[in-house]
Amino acid sequence: MAPSRNGMILKPRFRKDWQRRTWFNQQARKIRGVRALQAKACRIASGPSQPIVSPYHTEASVGQGFSLEELRVAGIHKKVARIIGIFVDPRRWNKSTANVQRLKEYLSKLIFFLRNSAEELKLATQLTGPVMPIQNVYKKEKTRVVTEEKNVKAFASLRMARANARLFGIRAKSAKEAAEQNVEIKVKPSWGLEIKKKKKLPRCGGAHL
């Protein structure tokens, strides 16, 4: 609405906020975050011991904490583990022998000091690097000619495996009934079934008139 005559100049403030949210400080926030992470890493350089996990099946990385089963096998209570510098993750339910061995090795290298033993504390050296770092070992395969893979029928193999899984119970039931009734049934090796045939008893010789 245009102003008319010598009236008051209108200042409509309907759009309080701008329509487009800006993010001009993105690069500065990135630099600040990196510096904060570096400062935190220096502050907790020798952190607690952590387990080895394989999230992508081939690459080993550091996990959130050891499972309760791993602590039980290693002979460590979950409350004591947090005191002596061992991460505990109650969400993990599996057990790894490598992690159990890692716990035992960590305990063998750990030195406990009493609060009043000032002389022993002066002689001790603090670890400044990572605690028991994980080393990924990659095995490089040699170059070879692809010969056997050309004869593999991937789609047919997948369909056969799917059919075997779907018909496993039916085939096992029919094979069991056939074994009980001494009836021969053709079983393919791809079925994954083993039929124990009963031994046939010898027939008794009857009297002939």
What does this molecule look like?
With 209 residues, the protein is mainly alpha-helical. Among the domains are: 40-123, no CATH class; 154-191, no CATH class. Helix content is 36%, strand content 2%. The chain has a two-stranded antiparallel ribbon with strand order 1-2. Helix 2 (68-74) packs across helix 4 (97-109). The termini are far apart.
How many E-type strands?
2
Which strand order do you get reading across the main beta sheet? 1-2
* Distance linking N and C termini: 130 Å
- What integer is the average pLDDT? 79
Radius of gyration: 36 Å
* Class from secondary-structure proportions: mainly alpha
Helix % is 25-40%
Shape: flat
Give unreliable regions as ranges: 204-209
Strand content: under 5%
In terms of quaternary structure, what is this? single chain
Key structural traits:
single chain; 209 residues; mainly alpha; two-stranded antiparallel ribbon; 2 strands; 2% strand; disordered C terminus
Write the layout of secondary structure elements.
Layout: H1 26-43, E1 52-53, E2 61-62, H2 68-74, H3 78-83, H4 97-109, H5 118-123, H6 154-166, H7 168-180
Antiparallel strand pairs: 1-2
Helix pairs in contact: 2-4
GO cellular component, one term: cytosolic large ribosomal subunit
InterPro entries: Ribosomal_eL13
Organism: Rhinopithecus bieti (Black snub-nosed monkey)
Briefly summarize what is shown.
With 209 residues, this protein is mostly helical. It has 7 helices and 2 strands. Strands 1-2 form a two-stranded antiparallel sheet.
